[in-house]
């Protein structure tokens, strides 16, 4: 049977909406996939699979792209597995069901896409950067966190949210001060950080 990619992507987006799964926005995913194409990205590590949406779209940028992606939520992992199989991409997308901070991996990646627990970004970066090729890129999603990062703190009522925003700001500082990378922040989707390893 022919794989109807268009229908699969549409179904994944519908599922995400109905189940409140925070997949990338259209602008964000368009930037990410264009980045892969322009920079000839072949090996990708993703932290935060959710239901496989961004992994599948990155894998579809070229038929020799491989993606390793990590998800700790069982329900989402199982949904991702279903979506990857339906897309016939099981040979090119490796799904790991584990906490990214616990798992042991190997590899030499062109791109690492960090899109998991926003408060843990520095930990993810520090753990996984050794698996990035020199000249490779780390892209981090949700740098704006729905506009909250640019808001005055006194306007954010929830204490947990205030703490999360502080962590995202600390991560931005961490990237800006990281001498081994050139980082650019893009006001695309929910805010992307593009960090290129020198
Ligand atoms: N990249 C996906 C969206 C990911 S949403 C897309 O755009 O299609 C973020 C996901 O990260 C959630 O499903 C959450 O369960 C997962 N996550 C958060 N912290 C994690 C961790 N420490 N290890 C593995 N997965 C994690
Ligand atoms: Mg995201």
Structure description:
With 198 residues, the protein is of the alpha/beta class. It has a single domain (5-197), classed as Vaccinia Virus protein VP39 (Rossmann fold, 3-Layer(aba) Sandwich), CATH 3.40.50. 37% of the residues lie in helices and 22% in strands. It has 6 helices and 7 strands; from the N terminus they run ααβαβαββαβαββ. The chain has helices at residues 5-18, 26-38, 53-59, 74-86, 121-128, 159-176, and strands spanning 43-47, 66-71, 93-97, 109-114, 132-140, 181-186, 192-197. A 7-stranded mixed β-sheet has the order 3-2-1-4-5-7-6, sandwiched between helices. Strand 1 (43-47), helix 3 and strand 2 form a beta-alpha-beta unit. 34% of the residues are buried. The structure holds S-adenosyl-L-homocysteine (SAH) and magnesium ion.
Described by strand count, sense and barrel closure, the largest sheet is:
7 strands, mixed
Q: Can you write the helix and strand succession as a string?
A: HHEHEHEEHEHEE
Give the second-level CATH assignment, the architecture. 3-Layer(aba) Sandwich
Could you give the count of β-strands?
Answer: 7
> How are strands sequenced across the largest beta sheet?
3-2-1-4-5-7-6
Strand content: 15-25%
CATH superfamily: Vaccinia Virus protein VP39
**CATH topology type:** Rossmann fold
Overall average pLDDT: 96
Low-confidence stretches: none
Radius of gyration: 16 Å
Outline type: globular
């Amino acid at each position: 049977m022919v794989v109807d990619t268009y229908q699969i992507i549409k179904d994944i987006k519908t599922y995400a909406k109905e189940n409140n799964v925070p997949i990338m926005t259209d602008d964000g995913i368009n930037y990410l996939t264009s980045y892969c194409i322009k920079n000839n990205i072949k090996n990708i590590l993703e932290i935060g699979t959710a239901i496989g949406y961004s992994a599948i779209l990155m894998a579809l940028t070229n038929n020799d792209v491989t993606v390793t992606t990590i998800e700790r939520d069982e329900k989402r992992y199982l949904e991702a597995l279903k979506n990857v199989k339906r897309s016939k991409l099981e040979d090119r997308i490796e799904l790991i069901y584990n906490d990214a901070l616990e798992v042991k991996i190997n590899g030499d990646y062109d791109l690492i896409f960090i899109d998991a627990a926003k408060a843990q970004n520095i930990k993810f970066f520090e753990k996984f950067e050794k698996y990035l090729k020199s000249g490779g890129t780390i892209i981090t999603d949700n740098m704006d966190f729905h506009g909250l990062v640019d808001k005055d703190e006194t306007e954010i009522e929830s204490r947990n949210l205030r703490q999360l925003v502080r962590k995202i700001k600390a991560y931005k500082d961490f990237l800006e001060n990281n001498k081994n990378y050139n980082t650019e922040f893009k006001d695309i989707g929910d805010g992307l950080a593009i960090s290129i390893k020198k």
